[in-house]
TrEMBL record:
Keyword annotations from UniProtKB, A to Z: Hydrolase, Lipid degradation, Lipid metabolism
Main EC class the enzyme belongs to: hydrolase
GO biological process, one term: lipid catabolic process
Organism: Betta splendens (Siamese fighting fish)
Protein name: Platelet-activating factor acetylhydrolase
Length: 402
């Protein structure tokens, strides 16, 4: 039962025409630098291996802290449950695309990190997008890291743990973990500060991609086999969208407000709490809200409604039978019972749910980035025209005061 059971679990492979490559980028040795995972169309290749879904065990430690469960016990459970999963992409495979690729910047949710939305990011890349999944350093990630130069005494003592990079560069990994709300601390100031930093990190990632696209040599402090010069002139920098899940959905809206290069946004089960009301009239781009059935509540929906506009396209759909965790990869990685118990799965088949979300997203991106692909075949999904979709929301809204 063990191995039969485990081999039917896994992140669904992308459905688009292109094979998908995956690599990591870290700009410098500071927590202020840009750090993202890149998904892109690649050459079919046998020899490239698929990267680990969770790149190092510290992420599981961070996840345990985030979930307020004991580290040592949970680290072993996570490793046993999730340690062997691979991403449906080829590590450092050579970039290949006919024509320039539209670009998506993706922002993860509270307590997540850059690798946990690979079913969404790889799917977009298989349809010809270049996707940068940012790892935020605002202390909302379960864990993240950067490098610092070792001190002379550390170099001498050789006590700093040996990681791949540190051996070569006398560098020490510095881990930054999730910052929980302190007892009695009010949440809005923290989340509002974080959403602003997160938007800046999305814009910085876009700036790095722009530089890479121009052919200017760009430093990547991570030792990867990927040749970044092959991305010269690969991106269509008039066709850029920003997207995110939950806290990442709010980040996408904040980023739209700050950066006009983002032509539209897709917010997956957006958590609107961190946003200032005063930014809503300043967002001028189209936004697509794709909601789960279980996460939303009237207060959150009413804030999305504040973005409704007669002139700018703002769409909303709800996927029947989904929960908040139907968007991150965990929803594919456990059996039904555990999944439903831990609220990682809803009633709907997880692959059907993410397929509806991805196709609706592609149709919306074609419409507002002016793509000449065949994603308009999925236009009805944008209006919730499917048995598994609800146009707008299922949340009963208090009648707004006349
Ligand atoms: C008690 C902790 N308390 C913290 C404030 C609430 C914790 N929580 C519910 C959780 C995440 C949960 C989770 C993960 C992962 C496993 C695993 F077992 F599969 F690993 C299990 C169970 C625990 C479901 C959420 O925060 C929900 N949420 C999320 S979840 C994003 C995420 C995080 C970690 C992941 F691995 C994957 C996805 N992103 C947001 O932006 C927002 C919210 C709420 C408001 C804004």
């Amino acid at each position: 039962m063990g191995n039969r059971c485990s081999n039917h679990l896994g992140i669904p492979p992308p459905k688009g025409p292109s094979a998908v490559g995956c690599t990591d980028f870290m700009m410098d040795h500071t927590a202020q630098g840009s750090f993202f995972r890149l998904y892109y169309p690649c050459q079919e290749t046998e020899k490239a291996e698929k990267p680990d879904w969770v790149p190092s065990r510290e992420y599981f430690n961070g996840l345990a802290d985030f979930m307020k469960i004991n580290r040592s016990l949970s680290e072993r459970i996570f490793n046993h449950l999730f340690g062997s999963f691979k991403i449906p992409a080829y590590l450092d495979a050579p970039f290949k695309s006919n024509g320039k690729c539209p670009v998506v910047i993706f922002s993860h949710g509270l307590g997540a990190f850059r690798t946990l939305y690979s079913a969404i990011c790889a799917e977009l890349a298989s349809h010809g997008f270049i996707v940068a999944s940012v790892e935020h350093r605002d202390q909302s990630s379960s864990a993240t890291y950067y490098f610092r130069e070792k001190s002379d005494s550390e170099k001498a003592s050789k006590k700093v743990p040996k990681t791949r990079a540190s051996v070569q560069d006398n560098l020490a990994q510095v881990w930054m973990y999730y910052r929980a709300l302190q007892h009695g601390e009010s949440e809005f100031p923290l989340r509002n500060k974080q959403v602003k930093q997160r938007a800046d990190e999305c814009i910085l990632a876009l700036d790095k991609l722009t530089k890479i696209n121009s052919g200017t040599p760009v430093q990547n402090v991570l030792r990867t086999q990927f040749d970044w010069t092959t991305l010269e002139n690969s991106m269509d920098l008039c066709r850029i969208a920003v997207m995110g899940h939950s806290f990442g959905g709010a980040t996408a809206i904040e980023a739209l407000c700050k950066e006009v290069r983002f032509k539209c946004g897709v917010a997956l089960d957006a958590w609107m709490f961190p946003l200032d009301d005063e930014i809503f009239p300043r967002v001028k781009q189209p936004i697509f809200f794709i909601n789960s059935e279980k996460f939303q509540w009237a207060g959150n929906i009413s804030r999305m409604r504040k973005l409704d506009s007669a002139v700018i396209q703002r769409k909303m759909i709800t996927i029947r039978g989904t929960v908040h965790q139907s968007f991150p990869d965990f929803t594919f990685l456990t059996g039904n019972w555990i999944g439903k118990l831990m609220k990682l799965k809803g009633e709907i088949n997880p692959e059907l749910a993410i397929d509806l979300s991805n196709k609706a997203t592609l149709a919306f991106l074609q419409r507002h980035l002016g793509l000449e692909k065949n994603f308009n075949q999925w236009d009805p999904l944008i209006d919730g025209e499917d048995d598994n979709l609800i146009p707008g929301t299922n949340v009963i809204m208090l009648q707004s005061a006349i």
